Amino acid sequence: MSEPTRSDYDVAVVGGGLVGSAIAWGLARQGQTVAILDEGDIAVRPSRGNFALVWVQGKGLGMPEYAGWTKRSADGWTGFADQLREQTGIDVRYERPGGFMPLLSEEEVEKRASQLRRLHNQPDMVRYDYEMLDRAAVEKEMPFIGKDVVGASYCPLDGHCNSLKLLRALHTGLERSGVAYLPNRRVERIEPRDGGFRLVTAGGEVRSGKVVLAAGHDSRRLAPMVGLSAPVRPERGHIIVTEKTAPFLKFPVGFIRQTDEGGVMIGDSFEDAGFDTTVRNGVSSTIADRAIRIFPLLGKLNVVRTWAALRVLTPDGFPIYEQSASMPGAFVATCHSGVTLAANHALALAPHIAAGSLPETFTAFSARRFDVSTAA
């Protein structure tokens, strides 16, 4: 995208990954003039670790509002993908065949069933269909499962997409909507100025009426500048990608999925390693071993790539969406499910930001939930 000719915008979005891009795309649809300030390819991008799932089952234990928010986004994904294709001509290959979580012991089956029961028994929970399936039922849908699979949970609301095409479609749509994408613009300071904000970067300053912090890990540093809090931490996850093979898996599995291009993605690690993205062979081996137990044919495929990336997690694992009380017009948005929640960020969150305030329904997502004095 070319450098902008204007110096003032309705909204400055800090962060050009999936979260920031979806919000900016939605803001442009609301008629807002928008600039995205992106750190560039040196950034620690959580988007590198996404699994391209639009996943509902199991999310929200401990925060039923998050379960409802997740379901709402998944339900909106078909329309979201259609709008992107109409605007850009890019098919993000979204499908919603339902998703499986294979289980390798009776103990795992009982643990999963208990988790889903407790999730759906929460007060104010938006319930949805799911099933606990025995081996025969799983094998009927996925005949390539291994002998160790004893059952699975299944939810018809789960799906997946091509996340690289999603990011491309968003940025193509941003360009066609006149959004200014400003790479290599790490924000050093944010200051209130003339009823709006002044964002200072090494490449110059940008002024805007509103500002949205969607900078992933860097939101922790930036949020206090506008009277907000984003207590996020990194969680390392490994991903393995195999060579392309004939289609065998039409359903996304929680940690295994065959892409529309034929390769298989595998990822199932959760590591507290700070900002270290080193690939650990032992972790990769453990992930691969479980995947092969579920689908033995994976053992015959060559691995073409493996890497580690850093998810963005809050203390309880749920998102933060909040507006500043001391600096109206400043917002923070952070989550670890940038693909699943992309439809909501574009179609549900962005209109509220454009209007200048978040409704009370977002109160549960405030970072004030981590304030000890508030909790007491």
Automatic annotation (TrEMBL):
<feature type="domain" description="FAD dependent oxidoreductase">
    <location>
        <begin position="10"/>
        <end position="350"/>
    </location>
</feature>
<keyword id="KW-0560">Oxidoreductase</keyword>
<dbReference type="InterPro" id="IPR006076">
    <property type="entry name" value="FAD-dep_OxRdtase"/>
</dbReference>
<dbReference type="InterPro" id="IPR036188">
    <property type="entry name" value="FAD/NAD-bd_sf"/>
</dbReference>
<protein>
    <submittedName>
        <fullName>FAD-binding oxidoreductase</fullName>
    </submittedName>
</protein>
<dbReference type="Pfam" id="PF01266">
    <property type="entry name" value="DAO"/>
</dbReference>
<dbReference type="GO" id="GO:0005737">
    <property type="term" value="C:cytoplasm"/>
</dbReference>
<dbReference type="GO" id="GO:0016491">
    <property type="term" value="F:oxidoreductase activity"/>
</dbReference>
